[in-house]
Please model this.
Amino acid sequence: MTTANFIKRTKGYDKSSKTIEDTYQVNVDTANDVDSAIAAVEAMAVPANYATDGVSATHINRNPMWYEARVTYKQSTSGGGGGADDPLSRPSVLSMSYEEWEEPYDVDHSDTPLTVANSAGDPFQTFPQRKNGTMNIQIAKNFASFAAGPYDAIKFTTNATSVTIRGAVFLADTLLFLPPTAQEVWEQIGTTTHHYYAVTFRLAADAGKHLHQVADRGYRQIVNGKHVKIRDGDQQPTEDPWPLDGGGVAKASAADAPATRTFQPYASASWGIDFS
Model:
């Protein structure tokens, strides 16, 4: 099998050529098969915004099985003004990662939810642990200018309307906007210096809409509009958090499953950002 191994890259900018030259070492199956050596190099990935301009191959130390092949790439446009070599015309770049951790939990997700307590209804000394995590989405995009203020105003908010990223639709409030990062860049392409800002948007995805669920327990209940201590079967103030019904009223038994309270820790906002 003919194989091509990348050796080095040389930029040939001399204010006129706008070329890149890559050098490969190629091992061919058949002695003196220069055509296979050239074909192997031509099959390699072409740099973005360039086109193949020529390939040559010569023997390495007169070894008939090895070639040094050089391929020249030339810019596909003359540069500037939104052409293929204009950084502002480049598409955004998407990447995803996953962050996970362990956390204590007090809400059970069985088909018939159980009280997260022992069989007598008493809380555990320490809550059991579960895995949790978030899918992190990064979108890198170039802009002619960058102002931190508008992004600071929406940091740590969820999307008020659905957002589409690479054809995937994220429903309202399933994305959390994390503060973006930005890098000011001056890039020389041919004879033109491009000035722009490389911005990376960061989003945290959660199909559960970033809501927090907490078991409804406490030491007091609401009776006739007043907070009163919850008392056990012996009419003594309870020593442990008692299950509540979600309306501030104690359940009949310490062993009853408490209601679940759902909290929204982040405000919802319209972002107005094009992530394409």
Summary: Residues 34-42 form the longest helix (9 residues).
